[in-house]
Structures are given as C-alpha cells and as structure tokens.
Known about the structure:
The chain is of the alpha+beta class. It has two helices and six strands; from the N terminus they run ββααββββ.
Amino acid sequence: MNHTSSTRALFTDISGASTTGIATIMSLEGNQKLLRAFKRSGLFFGLAVVSVLIPMLHFVLVPAFLIISIVMFVKTMSEAKIATALEGECPSCHKKIDLVGTFKLSGSKESCPQCRQLLRISFDEVN
Ligand SMILES: [Zn+2]
C-alpha cells in the first residue's frame, strides 16, 4: 500500500524568482523501489547488449552502459520517496502549473508547460 502525503514545493526560474506550490509525495516500499530500479537500469543494460554488435565502439560502449546501468540501479534504490504531482504557479509567466509524473526530491528540474521556462523544484519535507 502506498503512503502519500503533501508538502510545499518551491518553483524557481533562471532569474531567481520563485513561487510556492503543493507537491504530492509518495513513499516507496521495497518491491516498488526494486521495480523502478530494474526499469531505469534495464534501459542501459539493453543498450549495453545492443552495443556488443557495433564493431570497435563496443570496447567503450559496453562497459560504459554497464557502469551507467549499475549507477542508475543504486541511485534509484536510494530514493525512498518521490513526488508524483506538482501544482503551483510558474514564477516566469504566472500561469498555473499542474504536472503529474515522477519527480526526484533532490535536484529536480521541469519545464513550465506554458512558457517552457526551466524551473528548479525544491521541496520542504524530504525525510
Ligand atoms: Zn511559465
């Protein structure tokens, strides 16, 4: 069963202007974390397998994609909580932002759906 909660999200644009909004936070349990980690690392593992067929480049690409795959797996397993929805106002165009998806709780960046301005998103509660 998923445990969800809400917290305050801060949207900051490139000029430093910021607005606050609401984020829905979901706590991930063991199986969900594992499934997410396999999905994210599986893409790079697949690229490593396909890279075997490329002459010369496979000496670099196969180990690189395998390393990226392992790093993605470890990073994804360390994420105990993710944001699943963001609501607020864009600090650049002042239009409503309503995003649904999966967002990391640290270092998350999204484009405003209206003006395409890149927004840095930070969250109040991350424990
Ligand atoms: Zn905007």
